[in-house]
């Protein structure tokens, strides 16, 4: 085996000396293992390690096996940046979100489903949820990651449509405006109609709505569905019963408090997302209102938390995890140079009835 002569003058900061019984050194957890450390441990030159890693000629099969075992034992991994410079590919896809909340977490699970067994790895990147970063966070994030760290990205609820990137990008729950990005969304209009029609069918006539983020197409369509369902049933749209929640729990909490404190409060609330519906349940409890006897509440999303709320939340289910998988499948096709048959895909929604809704004045 073509091993280089060991170097006694090398002090390897990434290794811990073994117990003295002839067993090999144990890798330290301090810092990332380097190619130099692999070479020192294997007793070969750095150039030999490089050849093994990059599959180049000039190294015997025995040496390749030996160096590979050392690489596996030490946990060496070439940096993504170095990999991209060599191959113009990182074999990594990114999921970029404003913040990690239940919706984006479910999307992330779907992307992970899609890349399983594909040879791609996944990076999840958050803008951190800072208020000052809320508009245009996608551009900043993509400029940091695209090309050097990821081959393409899934954007979750972006704030803009004119995203320029050095690779393919797919949006989940896109911003309103020209559909410049390939996208995956849910049938928000029909879903909202289902939620409000359920409340109307129970006999509610004063139905309030806590709306979502006004710049998102999904939020606009959910409000449109709310209004259309009321009009179709011959009920007036009372603007005093419409409050903005912005898809943000604290904003929605204030909106719920205002609605439930009106002189003539609503008997039902349709919220544009589950987080807003869940804080509405909390506000109702704080005000001494019994759900569903005195107030019915319907959400939108069917995040895992909705099923374990008190009471369990009736909600419109959008297949969030499947949307993430669909977006990732489209992204992988784009990275491979394929043209998807349909770049704008819509997933069906359905109503999940639980214990937060009932006829006015009656328990569930």
Describe how the helices and strands are arranged.
Blueprint: E1 15-16, E2 26-27, H1 35-42, H2 46-54, H3 61-74, H4 80-87, E3 92-97, H5 102-115, E4 121-126, H6 137-145, E5 152-156, E6 169-172, E7 183-186, H7 188-201, E8 207-211, H8 217-232, E9 242-244, H9 249-260, E10 268-271, H10 274-286, E11 296-301, H11 304-307, E12 314-317, H12 320-335, E13 344-347, E14 350-352
Parallel strand pairs: 3-4, 3-5, 5-6, 6-7, 7-13, 8-9, 8-10, 10-11, 11-12
Antiparallel strand pairs: 1-2, 12-14
Helix pairs in contact: 1-2, 1-3, 5-12, 7-8, 9-10
Q: Could you explain how this protein is built, in words?
A:
The chain has helices spanning 35-42, 46-54, 61-74, 80-87, 102-115, 137-145, 188-201, 217-232, 249-260, 274-286, 304-307, 320-335, and strands at residues 15-16, 26-27, 92-97, 121-126, 152-156, 169-172, 183-186, 207-211, 242-244, 268-271, 296-301, 314-317, 344-347, 350-352. The termini are far apart. The chain has a 6-stranded parallel sheet, with helices on both faces. With 364 residues, it is α/β, with parallel strands linked by helices. It is elongated. α1 (35-42) crosses α3, α5 (102-115) crosses α12 and α9 crosses α10 (274-286). The protein contains 12 helices and 14 strands.
